[in-house]
Amino acid sequence: MINYDDILSDRCVKLKPSGIRKFFDILDEVKGVISLTVGQPDFVTPWHIREKAIASLEDGETYYTSNDGILELRQEISKYLNRKFGLEYDARKEIIVTVGGSEAIDIAMRAVLDPGDEVIIPVPSFVCYGPIAELASAKPVFVNTFEKDKFKLTPESLRNAITSKTKLLVLPFPNNPTGAIMTESELTGIAEVIRDTNIIVLSDEIYAEMTYGRKHVSFASIPGMRERTITVNGFSKAYAMTGWRMGYAAAPHEITEQMHKIHQYAIMCAPTTSQFAAIEALKNGDNDIADMTAEYNRRRKLIVHGLRKIGLPCFEPEGAFYVYPNIGGFGMTSNEFCEKLLHEEKVAIVPGTAFGDCGEGFARISYAYSVNHINIALDKIEKFVRKYR
Amino acid sequence: MDTLLKLMETNAHLTPSQLAVMCDMKAEEIESKIKEYEEKGVILGYKTLVDWDKTDREYVSAMIELKVSPQKDLGFDRIADRICMYPEVQSVQLMSGGFDLLVLIEGKTMREVSNFVFNRLAPMDGVVSTATHFVLKKYKDKGVTYNSEEEDKRGNIL
Predict the structure, then answer these.
(1) Against a cut of 0.90, is the pTM above it?
(2) Which of A161, A163, A159, A143 is nearest to A151 (CA)?
(3) Chain B CB contacts of A371 below 8 Å
(4) CATH number for the domain whose boundaries are B52-137
(5) Is A200:A346 a contact under the CB 8 Å cutoff?
(6) Residue range B37-86, pLDDT digits in tens
């Protein structure tokens, strides 16, 4: 008999599974739940994009593409990054089309990290950065962001976290779960801290299209930062294409050259059908983004206003499609609050602790749901809050 | 685009205060704006979309293409106005192409609808010919899909 304890990778066994699984398992068992948990758009991918994918299948486009993706797609990505964020990337050498933004994060970290390197990760943020850094033999260093700072990364807290071992800084803005963004001047402040170092930046800009009231600023567009920045973006959120698994990384050739090798051996290429869909999205999808973002913005105002009216303090999120209300003051942990809310009012929201210990006292609420759905949920949350306040 | 009208067109149930938040306006402003729209006839009314197939009401509907000879000075307006008078008539539209007026009719039975066409529409002065198409099944109407299960297909992924 094999003793699995002896044969499995130590590094993998020690990796913590995502903390939210338990909550989602409970959620699956309760019937008739109004859920506000999902981290993906409620829109179906626009039909003209789906149609192009279907046409590509009819045309027999069923082969591998070049490792880095169809050249036309990379050219469209290059144009898009220039049109929207003023970035310049060579489509032939500096862009890799990946299986979602997640793969781009993975190969970026593996391309730059060595054992002992430290990776600075502002939290709360999406759960993948720490584990992927660990898999690349590096050490995650978590830097808390706070409600009083609108959950932005401040130059002071970054400076305090930097050591001689710091190799990489993750910039997860617009942020999941808080909805925080970083403005141009705030990013410039971050740039000043790292300008004279060798620290590389992984800027995860998957929610770049979902900002409200001001345009997203790409970290690579801050003077002097392009040479050290790996920009990660993708189609999942902007074009409601989560299931297609389409993302990309753009970075100086010296970095993409290394990422290319990992991608080539581990992935080969992103799915061909999805790449054809992505070309159509970039060519003719600007209006879809505008329509969907306008709708998210209306829901955002509705839910922020609703939560504040109920008496749940809620910082004004300026990006992504989440609100991150403060649910402290009920004598319950975030987990208890969310489980009770689920059992008693059948409304599901994600406890902040799913994003690390710093999320205690908060919850993530997604507004990737219809206005009706949100209004029903708000009524139920109000009932719950009145009962326990 | 008028955000207020667009929101109200898709959901007439939203309260003025909810609309206000989404439109960056005050609730009182929303109320007076709605009143203004109603007075100007921009907002013509509020109705409920019913899927009658899910009830025990006997119900058929038909679209009727009418060829009409236009009248001097009045064009199609007078005959269209007269067709509008019948309560069975749900909509009347002047069309481009192979016929002139498209009339939507509702009734209890096919016989009732047929009788209406034979006895009322066809003999009207100016009506040259009619072609009646009974509706067999409604898939989508006024932007709403019928008979579709509202199922959230998204998996629970953080």
Answers:
(1) no
(2) A143
(3) 7, 11, 14, 18, 22
(4) 3.30.70.920
(5) no
(6) 999 999 999 988 888 888 998 889 999 999 999 888 888 999 999 999 99
